[in-house]
């Protein structure tokens, strides 16, 4: 797991993200933060949160994106109109074990206004990266951009681990 996290941190550094580690909900996470859109009208922040767990369970898959949503919303910046800008985030769970059937529950769901969170599962045991692929109507124009960011910062495990 440490080799995979090191590869993610390398990608974050290459993307000039501010890198830190902190608790997101109940899990210790690697966090990358960058400005996604630098306009005074609607500044947007990109947040990548990657957490390792013993097993990716349905409960973890349901909870972690909600926790990331709350964290990412706390980072939103003020626009020139005095309202908070938007945020884009990736909530990735990394594990050697993925509970059977959990990938069927890997979907994008609108959570809060001004926030798009794409969940991802990194299955180190199978050497596969899974990113939620559906496009909800709410925020339709942004989901593809956030999925692209997930692919930029989360390398395929088989390429990292061999």
Could you provide a short overview of the structure?
With 162 residues, the protein is of the alpha/beta class. The protein is built from four helices and six strands; from the N terminus they run H-E-E-E-H-E-E-E-H-H.
Task: Produce the secondary structure layout.
Blueprint: H1 2-14, E1 18-24, E2 27-37, E3 44-52, H2 58-74, E4 86-95, E5 115-123, E6 128-131, H3 140-153, H4 157-161
Parallel strand pairs: 3-4, 4-5
Antiparallel strand pairs: 1-2, 2-3, 5-6
Structural summary, described in words:
- A hairpin with a 4-residue loop joins strand 5 and strand 6 (128-131).
- This protein has helices at 2-14, 58-74, 140-153, 157-161, and strands at residues 18-24, 27-37, 44-52, 86-95, 115-123, 128-131.
- The protein is globular.
- By secondary structure, the protein is of the alpha/beta class.
- Helices cover 30% and strands 31% of the residues.
Summary tags:
single chain, 162 residues, alpha/beta, 6-stranded mixed β-sheet, 6 strands
Class derived from helix and strand content: alpha/beta
Report the count of strand segments: 6
Radius of gyration using CA atoms only: 15 Å
The fraction of residues in strands falls at 25-35%
Oligomerization: single chain
Spatial order of the strands forming the largest sheet: 1-2-3-4-5-6
Largest sheet: 6 strands, mixed
Shape: globular
Q: Treating each run of at least 4 consecutive H or I residues as one helix, how many helices?
A: 4
Poorly predicted regions: none
Percent helix range: 25-40%
From the N-terminal CA to the C-terminal CA, the straight-line distance is 13 Å
| Helix/strand order, N-terminal first | HEEEHEEEHH
Mean pLDDT score: 87
């Amino acid at each position: 797991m440490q080799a995979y996290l090191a590869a993610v941190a390398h990608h974050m550094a290459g993307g000039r993200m501010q890198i830190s580690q902190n608790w997101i909900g109940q899990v210790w996470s690697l966090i990358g933060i960058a400005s996604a859109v630098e306009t005074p009208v609607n500044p947007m922040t990109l947040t990548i949160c990657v957490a390792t767990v013993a097993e990716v369970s349905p409960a973890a898959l349901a909870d972690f994106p909600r926790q990331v949503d709350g964290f990412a919303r706390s980072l939103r910046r003020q626009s020139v109109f005095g309202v908070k800008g938007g945020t884009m985030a990736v909530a990735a769970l990394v594990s050697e074990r993925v509970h059977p059937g959990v990938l069927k529950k890997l979907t994008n769901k609108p959570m809060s206004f001004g926030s798009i969170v794409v969940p991802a599962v990194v299955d180190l045991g199978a050497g596969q990266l899974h990113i939620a692929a559906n496009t909800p109507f709410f925020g339709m124009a942004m989901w593809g951009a956030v999925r692209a960011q997930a692919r930029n910062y989360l390398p395929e495990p088989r390429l990292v681990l061999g």
